[in-house]
Design goal:
Length: 484
């Protein structure tokens, strides 16, 4: 293959782009990641992984790498806008905890994973434009060079050039509130910072300061106004001034590692696809970072799109497979925007929102309420609409201990489909090149047969071979000629 021709070009080398590149490489797709920044950012914009994303990392054999650098918080999944229910919520997951890990580490681990699988990563390379035709996409870089690919994915952030060039609408609400975020050193003592920070948070829930390790503190404080260009970072003096305005002290902050801004802007793309071009991650949806949703939502976009786009490259994708990326992920993003909008209201110090906050605290004393919110924030409650069937159809199957030893997720590392056959009589037939089979599965599997897609979601439940063949064809295309 020509060095400047690829199956897929991904614009954007953040966690969404790197996860997508890795998923494509599992299937041998020739993929190039274009990243504008010459060096990885040190800004800590996200602080951790939600349970659904942790499951994904386990499914791909990456979890031990993340656990080595992170901290587990089992009780963190039951909080909503800082309101915790009276009892811990037990989620239907083998990983019912938050994993605290700063985004630069997540970025590095996912980039290493993509590179190990053979993805080409080109830093300091900025997409300037593109044109698509029936056969592919011609990409132009800022340096004037041109590349060719069969597909293009814009994972290039909230100000996505790819989305703008496609003319895809991005309706929602413009920013009304802005926060300043910084990783800094401080001369104040740890006890003083903790005491003052806790006192300020009682009346200003948009304020926070705490240690991140290596003598650094992560501080968040409301800005005086909404900046015209969020890409321009605040100055250290601007940061100090806002700390003094809210806390009465700037804690002697100095030597910033990173300073940035974020807002409550909330928008959702009207479409995730135009011809041979897709959107993923922040290019498709932006929202306040409350609840730690953004990075997780983008990684899960990539996990959904990767195997489907790989199937299209390989030539066996059913005609409507790529369309399911939008029909499945758009409602999920819409739900995330709902819960981040709600949390944005609940942290307001105004009397009305505080009254709703007190009411929400009372409602969360009911297990059904606290569970609903925990499942939504963690991602465990996601269910794709795959038609009529049992409640578990369209949901991810949790990790299970296997009757023959080992764990279910260990059999999902290759990115292939998997048939779980408790009957011993079911078969993947002519789809054996795309779907594995596992018999005598587990006493904890309450079904005769389960078909899992490459992303771990349940695509079929039953014991009828003809029904199974129909679902295999619907998700994995026609069986290769000559197979039976």
């Amino acid at each position: 293959m020509d060095s400047e021709t690829y199956d897929v070009i991904v614009s954007g080398g953040g966690p969404t782009g790197m996860m997508l590149a890795a998923e494509l490489r599992l299937h041998g797709v020739e993929v190039l990641v274009l990243e504008r920044d010459a060096e990885p950012t040190t800004a800590v914009r996200a602080l951790g992984l939600q349970p659904r994303t942790i499951e994904i990392m386990d499914q791909r054999g990456l979890l031990e790498r993340f656990l080595a650098h992170g901290t587990q918080y089992p009780g963190g999944v039951g909080s909503f806008a800082g309101i915790a229910g009276p009892r811990p919520v037990v989620l239907d997951s083998a990983h019912a905890y938050l994993l605290g890990i700063p985004q630069p580490l997540t970025d590095r681990l996912l980039a290493e994973h993509a590179a190990e699988l053979g993805a080409e990563i080109r830093r300091g390379a900025q997409l300037a434009g593109f044109e698509q035709d029936d056969d592919g996409v011609t990409v132009e870089l800022a340096d004037g060079s041109r590349l060719r690919s069969r597909w293009l994915v814009g994972a290039d952030g909230g100000r996505s050039l790819v989305r703008k060039r496609l003319g895809i609408g991005f309706p929602g609400e413009a920013a009304t509130t802005e926060w300043l975020l910084g990783e800094v050193e401080a001369t104040a003592s740890a006890d003083e910072i903790a005491a003052v920070g806790e006192e300020v948070r009682k009346t200003h829930r948009g304020f926070g300061i705490g240690p991140t390790g290596d003598g650094l503190y992560r501080a968040v404080v409301p800005a005086a106004t909404v900046a015209e260009d969020r890409a321009v970072p605040p100055t250290l003096e601007e940061f100090r001034a806002q700390l003094r305005a809210y806390a009465g002290t700037d804690f002697g902050i100095h030597s910033p590692r990173a300073l940035s801004r974020f807002t409550d802007a909330t928008r959702l793309a009207e479409r995730y696809r135009d011809g041979r071009v897709f959107l993923a991650g922040d290019a498709a949806h932006v929202h306040p970072p409350l609840g730690g949703q953004g990075l997780n939502l983008g990684v899960q976009d990539a996990f959904n799109l990767g195997w489907k786009l790989a199937a299209a490259v390989a030539g066996w994708a059913p005609s409507d497979l790529l369309d399911t990326y939008f029909t499945e992920r758009h409602p999920v993003a819409d739900g995330v925007l709902t819960i981040t909008r709600a949390q944005s209201v609940l942290i307001s110090p105004e009397p009305g929102p505080q009254a709703v906050r007190r009411l929400m605290g009372a409602l969360m004393a009911f297990d059904v309420v606290s569970r609903l919110l925990a499942e939504r924030v963690s991602g465990i409650g996601i269910r794709y609409d795959l038609g009529a069937g049992p409640e578990s159809l369209g949901r991810r199957l949790r990790d299970l201990p296997l009757a023959q030893g080992g764990r279910l997720y260990e059999h999902l590392r290759t990115g292939r489909g998997l048939l779980l056959d408790q009957t011993g009589a079911l078969s993947v037939g002519g789809w054996a090149e795309r779907v594995d089979r596992l018999a005598d599965v587990s006493d904890e599997l309450d079904a005769p047969g389960v078909l899992l897609r490459p992303d771990g979601y349940v695509a079929w439940i039953g014991d009828d071979q003809d029904e199974l063949d129909g679902r295999l064809g619907a998700w994995f295309g026609e069986a290769p000629a000559g197979d039976a």
